[in-house]
């Protein structure tokens, strides 16, 4: 199959014609101080295209043969212009002077921001190659949404194919996945913040308990399965939250106060600025609420601080610290009977709690050797803990207040470094770029499970901390990786991207677990302590190749195939849960992703990204119900094949009507995916040829984005088709752990208004008060059905103060 696809790609290359394009690179700097301008704009007026400079003041443009006027400008500086004749690759530098008087207003329309909140990554950007890859870039400041509660349904509305679990009202954590992968804590993406890992353990426990405040996020970068070569082996790809940079003033402060339904209160404050060679940015967010169900109160603190020092025009250092602390009471799951009777606010658990304490540190270094070669080093460390406390029994079993609760406590101590070097070069008169890098990662997770205090408070303490009743394990892991990816222009319109990744992974497990036996009344009869130690080492390569063909400057075809790998997690090695058992012979998962699509501007008023994908997922780990039992068994349940169509389109209604206003706009977007995912090979009869769990065959999101001067408004409609919650496609079970997840539709609306230094936002989520759920949990925060949030409102008022 893979050989056939590669052959198709090569044949596709030979069918294409082309015309010459040339690479224009250069630097934008201060005329007096020679300091580079980050975020300066270089504009080609006749083509209505532009780009921004990076942190070193560098830019690059690809232009067809001809003569053009290039203009460069930055905040508070006069425009500089140069006439160039593009008949070869060339370097064009700009040196800007301060404004001496009033400047006539100039409109710049960046193709990146021509859509409301969605765009795509450039071919080479931020020490990565993204040409020929399926990717999305969410620009959060471009649209109105409920960023106070991190509403993923609105924030990711224009990314096709995303299934979103809506497990908590406050958006304390993110649960998203694509192409039929499990959404739980976004574990099937390689999740990053500012380019470095932020998950609990990138190898053994890639779940993300930490989520930055969306009010502090500048953009979100998503690269699908082809990200496996540069960022790690996950099937879902890479998800990166890029936080706001320091504003280009000595001091700026933003404050925002929000209130909402169910007792929600949110306070946000940020400060930032640049002082000579030093830049800084930081924020603090506090949120609390009662929740909309009984026993669902929460309190959360999130903070971030960053310092950067531009040592000279080549070298920059930075340090960052992210902090999260939250505690939430968990109301537990519901049975189908409770949900169908409309008792959604009811809670069958009053003693369940969850706590997270997150510390993520990073040090960065960027060095520019010359205009074409840059080096980047990121070193990071995670020192964090999560604790789950409560009753893990099936939700139909009453919670006895006189029995001790179960406490699962994880401590994460991880360190890693990742270095990258990007070099732009020419072969003949054709442009090329190569990214090479290496990664070192060392992780240690300490996991304990045992009995905890009997009461209903948030006392996260073991009864016997030195000898917990269930198990006490350490899970060390190590990872060394080397990767390289190369982009070469075969012609002025056709480019080839190819690369490989060499992985060395070691995962260990060492500890003790107790075999406990109980009588029918639940009394402990005997307990036998068992020692366990295991180690697994594997070294393997991954390969990928992609082609990109530009029909014109605004529209391109892209295609790629990349191998993927997912290591067994610590949860696959040892857990004590009365609802499921583990297979001791469980193994890693392997497969590949294929993309073929077209994206860009079909007309001045129509943008599209339409792609087909194939994902092969071998030795998939999953759950199925043991015959004659209500216990779930976790093992390699079979190979799955995922085929689908992901489409996004947006119509600029203003332009379609013949209007072209800089101050206003109206856009209609449609995001739809159709996915068929089946188990095509399984030794388990009840699973073979069944649909993969948590894969709606149809997902549709559509809406309107309106802007007028300082006003932004968004309306959105979402529909997800029916899903199964387990691999056997069971339709009903009285324990509610498995069964159908019915189709549902939800409407949301948000508005934002900026006037002078003030900002006002308001909105309503789930306008029609739809009763629905997105998941059935086998453990926390269930077990059972987790109902989604009913209709809710929010309102916020913000103020900006700066030293301009």
From TrEMBL:
It is found in: Cell outer membrane. Signal peptide: none annotated. One of its GO terms (cellular component) is cell outer membrane. Keywords: Cell outer membrane, Membrane, Receptor, TonB box, Transmembrane, Transmembrane beta strand, Transport. Transmembrane segments: none annotated. It comes from the Bacteria. Coiled coil: none annotated. One of its GO terms (biological process) is siderophore-iron import into cell. Residues 149-234 form the TonB-dependent receptor plug domain. It is a multi-pass membrane protein. Residues 310-767 form the TonB-dependent receptor-like beta-barrel domain. The keyword Secreted does not apply. PROSITE patterns: TONB_DEPENDENT_REC_3. The keyword Nucleus does not apply. InterPro entries: Beta-barrel_TonB, Beta-barrel_TonB_sf, CarboxyPept-like_regulatory, Plug_dom, Plug_dom_sf, TonB-dep_rcpt-like. Belongs to the TonB-dependent receptor family. This is TonB-dependent receptor. It comes from Fulvivirga lutea. The lineage of its organism: Bacteria, Pseudomonadati, Bacteroidota, Cytophagia, Cytophagales.
């Amino acid at each position: 199959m893979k050989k056939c696809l590669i052959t198709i790609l090569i044949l596709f290359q030979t069918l294409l014609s082309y015309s010459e394009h040339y690479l224009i690179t250069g630097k934008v700097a201060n005329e007096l101080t020679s300091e580079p301008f980050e975020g300066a704009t270089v504009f080609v007026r006749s083509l209505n295209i532009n780009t921004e400079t990076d942190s070193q003041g560098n830019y690059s443009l690809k232009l067809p043969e001809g003569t053009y006027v290039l203009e460069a400008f930055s905040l508070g500086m006069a425009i500089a212009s140069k006439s160039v004749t593009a008949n070869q690759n060339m370097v064009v530098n700009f040196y800007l002077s301060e404004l001496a008087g009033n400047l006539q207003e100039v409109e710049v329309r960046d193709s990146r921001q021509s859509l409301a909140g969605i765009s795509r990554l450039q071919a080479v950007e931020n020490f990565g190659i993204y040409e020929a890859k399926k990717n999305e870039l969410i620009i959060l400041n471009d649209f109105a949404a409920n960023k106070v509660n991190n509403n993923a349904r609105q924030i990711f509305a224009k990314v096709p194919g995303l299934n979103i679990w809506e497990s908590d009202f406050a958006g304390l954590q993110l649960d998203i996945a694509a192409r039929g992968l499990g959404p739980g804590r976004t574990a099937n993406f390689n999740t990053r913040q500012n380019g470095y890992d932020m998950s609990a353990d990138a190898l053994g426990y890639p779940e993300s308990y930490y989520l930055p405040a969306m009010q502090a996020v500048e953009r979100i970068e998503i690269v699908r399965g082809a990200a496996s070569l540069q960022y790690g082996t996950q099937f879902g790809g890479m998800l990166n939250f890029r936080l706001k940079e320091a504003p280009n003033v000595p001091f700026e402060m933003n404050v925002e106060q929000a209130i909402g339904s169910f007792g929600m209160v949110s306070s946000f404050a940020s400060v930032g600025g640049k002082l000579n060679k030093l830049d800084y940015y930081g924020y603090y967010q506090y949120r609390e609420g009662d929740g909309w169900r009984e026993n669902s109160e929460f309190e959360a603190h999130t903070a971030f601080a960053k310092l950067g020092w531009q040592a000279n025009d080549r070298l920059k250092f930075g340090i960052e610290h992210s902090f999260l602390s939250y505690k939430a009471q968990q109301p537990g799951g519901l049975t189908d009977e409770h949900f169908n009777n409309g008792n959604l606010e009811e809670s069958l658990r009053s003693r369940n709690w969850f706590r997270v304490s997150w510390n993520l540190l990073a040090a960065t270094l960027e060095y520019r050797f010359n205009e074409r070669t840059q080096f980047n080093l990121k070193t990071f460390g995670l020192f964090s803990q999560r604790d789950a406390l409560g009753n893990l029994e099936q939700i139909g079993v009453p919670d006895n207040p006189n029995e001790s609760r179960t406490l699962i406590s994880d401590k994460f101590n991880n360190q890693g470094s990742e270095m990258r070097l990007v070099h732009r070069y020419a072969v003949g008169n054709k442009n090329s770029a190569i990214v090479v890098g290496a990664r070192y990662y060392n992780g240690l997770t300490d996991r304990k499970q045992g009995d905890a205090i009997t009461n209903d408070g948030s006392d996260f303490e073991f009864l016997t901390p030195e000898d917990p009743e269930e198990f006490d394990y350490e899970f060390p892991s190590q990872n060394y990786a080397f990767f390289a990816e190369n982009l070469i222009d075969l012609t002025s319109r056709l480019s080839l991207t190819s690369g490989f990744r060499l992985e060395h992974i070691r995962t260990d497990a060492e500890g003790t677990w107790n075999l406990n036996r109980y009588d029918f009344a639940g009394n402990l009869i005997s307990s036998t302590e068992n020692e366990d130690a295991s180690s697994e080492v594997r070294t393997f390569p991954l390969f990928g190749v992609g082609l990109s063909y530009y029909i014109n400057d605004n529209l391109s075809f892209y295609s790629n195939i990349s191998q993927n790998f997912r290591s067994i997690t610590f949860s696959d090695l040892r857990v004590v849960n009365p609802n499921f058992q583990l297979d001791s012979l469980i193994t890693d998962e392997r497969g590949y992703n294929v993309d073929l699509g077209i994206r860009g501007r079909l007309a001045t008023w129509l943008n599209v990204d339409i792609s087909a994908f194939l994902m092969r997922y071998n030795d998939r780990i999953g759950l199925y119900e043991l015959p004659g039992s209500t216990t779930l068994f976790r093992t390699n349940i079979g190979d799955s094949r995922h085929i689908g169509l992901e489409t996004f389109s947006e119509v600029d209604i203003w332009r379609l009507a013949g209007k072209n206003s800089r101050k206003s706009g109206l856009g209609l977007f449609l995001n739809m995916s159709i996915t068929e995912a089946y188990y095509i090979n399984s030794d388990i009869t009840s699973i073979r040829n069944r649909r993969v769990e948590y894969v709606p065959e149809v997902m549709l999101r559509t809406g309107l984005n309106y802007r007028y001067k300082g006003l932004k408004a968004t309306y959105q409609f979402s529909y997800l088709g029916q899903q199964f919650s387990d691999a056997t496609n069971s339709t009903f079970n009285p324990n509610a752990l498995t069964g159908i997840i019915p189709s549902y539709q939800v409407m949301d609306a948000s508005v934002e208004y900026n006037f002078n230094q003030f900002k006002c936002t308001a909105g309503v989520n789930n306008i029609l008060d739809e009763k629905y759920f997105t998941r059935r949990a086998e453990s926390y925060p269930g077990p059972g059905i987790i109902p989604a949030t009913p209709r809710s409102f929010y309102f916020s008022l913000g103020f900006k103060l700066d030293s301009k």
